[in-house]
Each structure stands twice: as structure tokens, then as C-alpha cells.
Amino acid sequence: MSWSLVFLLAAGAFAFKVLGLVIIGDRSLPAVLERCLSLIPAALIAAIVVHDTFGLGGQRLQIDARAVGVGTAVVLAWRKAPFIFVIVAGAAVTAVVRAIG
Amino acid sequence: MTRAWRDPRLRPVVWASLTLGSAVGVFGFVFGVAAVSAGASVFQASAMSLLVFTGASQFSAVGVIAAGGSTASALGGALLLAARNGVYGLAMARRLPGSLGRRLIAAQLTIDESTAMSAAQPDLEAQRAAFWITGISVYVFWNLATLLGALVGSAINPSTFGLDAAFPAGFTAMLWPLLRDRRGRMAAAGGAVICVALIPFLPIGVPILCAAVAVLVGVPR
């Protein structure tokens, strides 16, 4: 692996972060834009959940043990279980279902 | 930071961020192993985790190199994955005032975990504390684990322990408080549907970015 990959990726990744947080994020924006920006975490985190639950890499989707584990996590989050418990139960259920299947 | 430890209101945040940090640590270890087996030196693997600090991008770059891809193709995919941190920065900027130096440090810590943990908090003070505690916790665990993985080099299989489901499970818990109001629920549902619908058609990382379109439910008053 080349050092140029390390440094170019570092520069690019940091540029994105700075662009959002420091350069654009600094300005005061119209109310409608503020409302939309405040919804970014909900939209993107929900996307990551389904991406990591059903995505298989290489543009493939699959329903497998992860779906059962994350389904368990959804029920526990809904029942307001502690964060640690949601993570551990999600991983443990996935591992068990995978071992059985 | 020290105040956060003493403030009983923030104790759940501290515990949650340490849990998350240790989960991230497992993947940092796996990254260290993967980077070295893709031909990186221990120094390069650590430099990547210290400087890039975006797990998904790092895994993607190392994966492309391991599969025999060029530096350019490794860079392209990884940068697409990194772009969402810019979007997080937009959402976080209002909660994170301070000097330029402080904000540049905050920028480096702006990732999935710190944004999600912060967004899940009820008030501004807790949101700020959650961002910094989670960002620093994940940074420390991720980098120590990368170094360890790169040094050890022998693989564990995270899927045996269901650890590949630990992230979506953790993000589910962080997502829940954002679903309190109707707009939050609509944005989350929209983001999930857009992402799943686009995964078969777009390169990895792009569907998650496209999910940001769901924030348009915030347009009507």
C-alpha cells in the first residue's frame, strides 16, 4: 500500500469534515434549512442501520442472522433497555442464530 | 470531560460511549489485521487510523488494495464513504461552537458514532458532552486497537461473535430518541427506504449519502 493513498485519503476525509462543520456550518441559515439539517442524523442513521443489517457488500442485499439480532435490538430500544444491553443482545442473538443456522 | 464524570445526568452517556468505544475497538483490531495483510506497514495502518479516522472508508480502501485495485479506485470509494461526515458536520455545527482550533479538532471527531450519540441527547449541554466523550472514546479505542491488530496480525473472525450486528444494534438504540416527533420518524423511514432501494444499483457508500434526501420532510412548516 502506498503512502500517497494514506495521505490523500486523510486529506480528503478531513476536508469533508471541515467543509461541513467549520466552513458551511458556521453560517446562520434560513429556518427551512435548519429544520432539514436537524433531520440529517435521523435519516442517515436509519440508512446505516438497514445498510449494515441487510447489505452484503458488492451491491447485494441479504436477510440473515443479522436481521434477527437487529430485530431484537429494535424491540429492546423500544422497551427503553439500556444502551449496553441493546448492543450486547443484538450481537449475541446474531451469533446464536448464526451458530444454529 | 472531568465534569462529565461527576454529573450524574451524563453518566449513562459516559457508559454508552465507553461501550461503543470498545465495540469499535474490535473493528479497529480487525482493520489493523486487514491493513497489514493488504500490504500496509504497521506504521501505515496506524497513520491511517490516526489521520483518516473513518472506519468505513478505511476498510473500503484496504479492501480494494487487497483485491488488487489501484490507489485511485481505493481512494474514490473511500472518499464517497467519507462524504457523509461532511453532512454530519452541517448538522453538528450549531451544537459545537468555539475557537477555530477547537472546531478543527471537533471536525476530526465528526463521525457516525459521535453524531448519533449527540443527536440522541435531550438538551444542548448533554449533546455537546456526548459528542466529545463519544468522539474521544472512539478515537482512543480505534487507534489502540488498530496498532494492536497491525502488530499481532493474526485474525479473529468478528462474525462468529455477531459483532457485525453490534453496530446496527447500537445505531438502533441511538436512533430511537430521534423518532419522538413525527418529522423524525418520517426522515428515518425515508432514509431507510431510500438506502435499501438503492443498494442494488449504486456503489457502496452512495446509498447512505442519498438517504439524506429524506430530510426534505422538514421543508413544510
Can you offer a commentary on this structure?
The complex is a heterodimer of chains A (101) and B (221). Chain A folds into two domains: 1-36; 39-101, no CATH class. Chain A has helices at residues 3-24, 31-38, 40-54, 65-78, 83-100. Chain A has five helices and no strands. Chain A is extended and about 50 Å long. In chain A, 76% of the residues lie in helices and 0% in strands. With 101 residues, chain A is mainly α. Chain B is mainly alpha-helical and 221 residues long. Chain B has one domain (2-157). Chain B contains eleven helices and no strands. In chain B, helix 2 (11-37) packs parallel to helix 8. The longest helix of chain B has 29 residues, at 124-152. The interface between A and B is large, with 76 and 101 residues.
Give the tags.
heterodimer; A: 101 residues; mainly alpha; 2 domains; 76% helix; extended; B: 221 residues; 11 helices; 0% strand
Summarize the structure.
Chain A is mostly helical. In chain A, 76% of the residues lie in helices and 0% in strands.
Portion of residues within helices of chain B? 55-70%
Order of helices and strands of chain B: HHHHHHHHHHH
The biggest sheet of chain A amounts to:
none
Biggest protein-protein contact in the assembly: A-B, 76 and 101 residues
**What is the count of DSSP helices of chain B, taking H or I runs of 4+ residues?**
11
Specify the overall morphology of chain A: extended
Give the uncertain stretches of chain B in residue-range form.
none
Roughly how much helix do the residues of chain A carry, as a percent range? over 70%
Low-confidence runs of at least 5 consecutive residues of chain A: none
Strand content of chain A: under 5%
N-to-C span of chain B = 38 Å
Given helix and strand content, the structural type of chain A is mainly alpha
Mean of residue pLDDT values of chain A: 90
Largest sheet of chain B: none
Oligomer: heterodimer
Order of helices and strands of chain A: HHHHH
